[in-house]
Amino acid sequence: MEGLLDHMLRDTLTRVGGVDRCVSEFIRITDRLLPRRVFTRIVPELLTGGRTHAGVPVRAQLLGSDPQCLAENAARLAELHPEGIDLNFGCPAKTVNRHRGGAVLLDEPELVGEIVAAVRRAVPARLPVSAKMRLGNEDRGRMLDCARAIEAGGASELVVHGRTKRDGYKPPAYWDQIAAVREAVAMTVVANGEVWTVEDARRCLSESGCTSLMLGRGMVADPGLALAVRADLMGQGAAPLPWDDVVPLMAGFFAQVRRNVATRHQAGRLKQWLHYLRRRYPEAEETYQRVRTINAPDELALTLFGRALDPKTPPADEAEGLGVDADTEVDVENDLDADAVRAPDTDQQQDRDTLIAA
Prior knowledge:
By secondary structure, the protein is an alpha/beta fold. It has 14 helices and 8 strands. This is tRNA-dihydrouridine(16) synthase. Keywords: Flavoprotein, FMN, NADP, Nucleotide-binding, Oxidoreductase, RNA-binding, tRNA processing, tRNA-binding.
């Protein structure tokens, strides 16, 4: 999720547990071969074995429209050993679409297929190549053509967001249309879009016929959502993550923000997350109103956490005591856009279920 779910929030949310895999925010590819430092700046997990602190693998995502340039950059990215490479055909942002990136390419299924095929040829066979798409650009007329082109190009997995670019993020998401895509291809299809609660997840899986979900904004608003969905799929009840456990997560996140983000933007990053948390927690609404006019990072940290959170000091593992398990597996889109949970298989244990985080 560009501008929201970066490496700092990925680190924070995966500490809670329930996430099997993350997808990075997109790396924009235009007309040149990017230096390795660009990939590691956007996906610093590449420097730590391609995993978050909690041990969750991260798949790096590329966005562009030039098959050859994307292939060359994918080959360089592959040298850094990501968990896989994902291709973005779903971003609805006007600035991105204006430069022939994201969902606008869904009007050109032939080009979409060429991009996937070029990237697939450019990287080692062992490295998974996946893609994300919406139901279409202005309409759904070429939805199935695009999905088939992505499969023919060699992708092993496709995340489908249940809205067109024109739909934006306006509810509802059309999960039944994801079912049409799933029936048209043999590769794994992951359902995405408008999953905010366990009930949403249950309905999305039922209507789409998928066995995996990608969680995006829903997990930003409710950091315990992945664990709750996983527990529900196992037929178990799951207590919601209490606000008192969310506060230390926010402190750990803000400590990272203070080390990595320009001072003038630091308060805005924390308030951005608080804004999403208001959807799930009444306490977040009260907290947001209390700090919304505070822009000085030290004052904000003192008000919320009782300490300044020295930007030169690495944050303590604030997740300790929250029941975080580095071995726990759970996809988080504007997509921190991607979330996947796999429904129970009568022949397999739930530990093979998937919940992806983007």
